[in-house]
Amino acid sequence: xxxxxxxxxxxxxxxxxxxxxxxxxxxxxxxxxxxxxxxxxxxxxxxxxxxxxxxxxxxxxxxxxxxxxxxxxxxxxxxxxxxxxxxxxxxxxxxxxxxxxxxxxxxxxxxxxxxxxxxxxxxxxxxxxxxxxxxxxxxxxxxxxxxxxxxxxxxxxxxxxxxxxxxxxxxxxxxxxxxxxxxxxxxxxxxxxxxxxxxxxxxxxxxxxxxxxxxxxxxxxxxxxxxxxxxxxxxxxxxxxxxxxxxxxxxxxxxxxxxxxxxxxxxxxxxxxxxxxxxxx
Amino acid sequence: xxxxxxxxxxxxxxxxxxxxxxxxxxxxxxxxxxxxxxxxxxxxxxxxxxxxxxxxxxxxxxxxxxxxxxxxxxxxxxxxxxxxxxxxxxxxxxxxxxxxxxxxxxxxxxxxxxxxxxxxxxxxxxxxxxxxxxxxxxxxxxxxxxxxxxxxxxxxxxxxxxxxxxxxxxxxxxxxxxxxxxxxxxxxxxxxxxxxxxxxxxxxxxxxxxxxxxxxxxxxxxxxxxxxxxxxxxxxxxxxxxxxxxxxxxxxxxxxxxxxxxxxxxxxxxxxxxxxxxxxxxxxxxxxxxxxxxxxxxxxxxxxxxxxxxxxxxxxxxxxxx
Lengths: 281, 322
Prior knowledge:
The structure holds two protein chains of two kinds.
Chain A: H1 3-41, H2 47-50, H3 63-94, H4 99-112, H5 116-131, H6 136-161, H7 164-172, H8 177-188, H9 190-205, H10 209-212, H11 232-240, H12 245-274
Chain B: H1 4-7, H2 9-55, H3 58-61, E1 65-66, E2 71-72, H4 75-106, H5 109-124, H6 127-153, H7 173-197, H8 201-209, H9 214-243, H10 246-251, H11 269-276, H12 283-321
Antiparallel strand pairs in B: 1-2
Helix pairs in contact in B: 2-12, 4-7, 4-9, 4-11, 5-7, 6-7, 7-9, 8-9, 9-12, 11-12
């Protein structure tokens, strides 16, 4: 065989393999979604959203778990959101070139990919041990700590997209920097920052590991923030590993609910970003 | 702003005060990020101290894990964490590389975006979903079709044969690695794609101009240029695999032992913590589990820090070359 044929063949083979690799990746996404739909839809009914988690063998729903997940996610974002946005503001505006900002960016990136179970242990030491019992508020704080790095990062990126000319114009009008940030930069970057919040919600609403030893779980309805609270991920974890068919069915339905909400959130966030002027992807 | 600001000194003082307050608030929030990392490290050390003081270095070197006699060693979970992550990367790197190549060099424009988004959605699926899927779908398939074949074909071989012996449990180290691989593929692929896109077109065009094939351009121009970033992306995936909890907990079998076979159940640091923490009775047991957490923190922190450092240098180079 001539050298040219070998080179051509290698080229075609390598490129075909890269297509195969992509097909493998897409196959697993499809397989996971299909399994979720197949098993989850079977249990989808009104009682899923109106009844509490049942004891083994009797029928029930996921109302208390859905409620708990929503409550803890909302509190988590309510804590992590403002703090993350302020920190992102510092990195993008006041401390853009400060030496400490480089350190903070680096540490924030590390936190962004830190294992969530470690955050759970940290909150356990910080709150659960002090309070003496598991609680919903501890779970919410754990989620806030996981959400914060996401929000810091996206806020900084989005504020950096605001044209320098707009900032200069405001400064030239005699505005102090805080006024420029609140009245010019934030409104200009609003949809981008909201996207960051959406991504953070998507990130924390499926988190299981940090809730295992902070919020724990609750078989019953509870709206007491200083008591253990049911939540979808931990219910899925416990029910899926149980030997009872009705619990396993609820786990699948819960998994479907979580995944669909997260995918909708992520896609929405992407659509918002791509409609931004200067937005990437 | 109105002209009052320039005239009224009280108004100007109010403005300056608000400026100081707002600036301090943003600085405090930014410093909180540093405080958090410090707090995590400190609290893990404090929590792990009783176990570390009791077992000393033996905590790191012993395989035993017995809550009844209060004897704890971290060797089995550390081994499990390292082995599953290593295997996961072995499976994930070629696939991720292929996806990144496909997305940057091969795919027609109309296909680029949907496929890219699909891969990113795979990254957004929460890990517990991978876990439940791995347990109910993947493990039975591996048990019935893949593992018997591995045992039959690879089992009798010298050296690597030991890795594929014993009964096909379905759940175990190999299955956990497989699920981990699927989880980290989108992360590694996304970073690699971004890195490949930083390769200047001029370089690639020079390659084509010399008569190179697409593959030769990729292998001899793109890859050498993007090497640092690729390694950074791989290490980011490694950090993810090391700390991954739920996906592994479902399928690893939670057995505190170091088996030579990849088909046998094992455990990882995060799976041990997730399985046992809420039920741990006794200070030494809890403290040993937190000790495992501290080890995990140390391992992942070094890997992630190294990865971020590499990617940061790359970003700076990309900025300066623009």
